[in-house]
Amino acid sequence: KLPTGFNISTLDTSEVSLGNVDLSGVTGLTIAHLNSSKGIFTKLPLGFDVSDLNTTNKSLSWVNFKGTIGLTVAQLNAAQLNLSRTVLPDNFDVTNFDLTGRNLYQADLSGAINLTGTQLNQSSDNTGIILPSGFDMNSWNTSGKSLSNINLTDVINLNINHLNHASDIRGIKYPNSFDLSGLNTTGKELGFSDFTNTEGLTASHLTN
Questions:
Q1: Is 162 helix (H, G, I), strand (E, B) or coil?
Q2: Which of 13, 45, 83, 127 is the residue whose CA sits 20 to 30 A from 190?
C-alpha cells in the first residue's frame, strides 16, 4: 500500500508493475496509469472513474472496485476468467454478466443487483462467494453444486433441498432459526460450519 497523498502523476507505469498495489490513498492517478501498467492494482481511490479501463484479457483477481464508478459488465466479460477475490461496486447491475467458466473463489458479490443462481451455476468455482443481502435462493438450482464456505445468513427462500442436493456444504453459515431436521449429511463433510441459532440439528447429522 502506497502512502496516503502519494503523488503518482509522474510515474511511468509502463516500466513499473502495479501488481497487487493498493492505490486507494494516492493522488494524480489517471486511467492511463492503469492501462499501461504491467500488473493489475488491488484498490483504487474513492470515486475513481474506471469507465475507460481496458480489461481485455487482463486478470481482475484481487481487484477491489468498491467505491469506484463507471465499471460495466462489458469490462468484466472482457477480462480473464479468474475473478477470485474480486470485489464488485455497490449497486452494480450484473444483468448480462457472463460467468461461464469464471473462477469466483471468495469473490465479493454483495454489491450486485439482479444476480441469479443461473449465472452462478455457469462459474467454475463458487467457494466462499459473498452473496448480496436478500439473494433469492429460489433462482439457484444447487444440484451437484458446491455451497462451501458461503454465508447464507442474509439470503431468502433457502430450503433444505438446496443443501441436500449440493455437492459440498462445508463451512456454511446458516440463517437464524433455520430448520436442519431434514438435512441429509450422508457422505458429506461439515467442517467449519456455523450452526449457531439453527434448529433441528442432531447427533446423527454429525456422525453420518
A1: helix
A2: 83
Give residue 75's identity as a one-letter amino acid code: Q
What is the distance between the alpha carbons of residues 88 and 28, in angstroms, rounded to a whole number?
Answer: 23
Kindly state the DSSP code that residue 182 receives in the 8-state scheme.
Answer: T
pLDDT digits (tens, 9 = 90+) for 97-152: 999 999 999 999 999 999 999 999 999 999 999 999 999 999 999 999 999 999 99
Helices (H) and strands (E) in the chain, counts: 5, 2
Rounding to the nearest 10 degrees, give the CA dihedral for residues 21, 26, 28, 34: 20
CB 64 within 8 A of CB 85: no
Q: Euclidean distance between the first and final Cα of the chain, in Å?
A: 47
pTM for the whole thing? 0.93
d(CA 197, CA 208): 21
Cell (9 digits) for 55: 480489461
Could you tell me which of 119, 185, 129 has the C-alpha nearest to residue 154? 129
Q: What residues contact residue 44 under an 8 Å CB cut-off, 6+ apart?
A: 23, 24, 29, 50, 64, 65, 67, 68
Query: How many Cβ atoms sit within 10 Å of the Cβ of residue 32?
Result: 11
The DSSP secondary-structure symbol of 114 reads S
